[in-house]
Amino acid sequence: MSDYWTSIGEIAQVFDGPHATPKKINEGPYFLSISSLEKGALDLSKSAHLSEEDFVKWTKRVTPQEGDVLFSYETRLGDAAIMPADIKACLGRRMGLLRSDRERVIPEYLLYAYLAPDFQEIIRENTMYGATVNRISLKDMPSFPIRIPLLDEQRRVVSVLKTLDEKIELNRQTNQTLEQIAQAIFKSWFVDFEPTRAKIAAKQEWDKKSLTAENTKNMRTAHGAAAGGNDTALSNEQAKAIFVERATMAAISGKSLKELGKL
Questions:
Q1: In terms of Cα–Cα distance, which of 233, 216, 213 is closest to 225?
Q2: Which residues are within 8 A (CB) of 146 and not within 5 positions of it... i.e. 6 or more apart?
Q3: Residue among 32, 72, 64 nearest 50 (CA)
Q4: Low-confidence ranges of the chain (pLDDT < 50)
Q5: Where in the sequence of the chain do the CATH 3.90.220.20 domains occur?
Q6: Model pLDDT for residues 77-109, shown as the tens digit of each residue
Q7: 9: Cβ–Cβ under 8 A, 6 or more apart, which residues?
Q8: Which of 13, 30, 68, 87 could form a disulfide with 83 if both were Cys (CB 3.0 to 4.6 A apart)?
């Protein structure tokens, strides 16, 4: 094909997962779930665990390796994620994987190409609609067309997109932390009535730490910088107010002063 079009079978092997479900336990290797495939990422909190004995049985066909592209071939069609390093897991039901020929395609690029609109359209065109679930045929999947450019272009694309993904994930974690803090503050104000006690404790901590003139000077300078200013020392009352506010927030939210300073 022209313009770097090829087929799945030319650049990767297609593997099927088990067609049954093992006994789920609280710890052990992961039994991956298609629910864990979330916008290109793998959310292991949505996968169960199985015993070491069952792990041997459920990996007879294939054991997921770092860089494999995991995907759903029934129900959640189009969802995919890349297998991370150092995770012991087996494929779950309705799940397959693509193992890249790394001389032809970078695993991360294969994931992006899988999630791209043109390949999502290929999936829609090859979807078999059933009474209960929709599916794609793993037997036919090697013939599905996909655009895979030369390795140099793949590396450039992956470099840009991975950087953006990392920033998105950092923002997601920050938003999650802020949400946890907001929930903790709401609970402390309207359920546990903690702020008054936390403020009293913070003021006592300040008074204890600022017993000497040298400590007072250091703390005023440090909290002036923490408040977004320069190293110019604040007045004692200004520094105390900032310290009390931050220490109260830390006590209520369960976050350290260092963690709060990163937000």
A1: 233
A2: 5, 6, 7, 8, 11, 113, 114, 119, 122
A3: 32
A4: 1, 211-215, 218-219, 222-223, 226-232
A5: 5-149
A6: 999 999 999 999 999 999 999 999 999 999 999
A7: 141, 142, 143
A8: 68
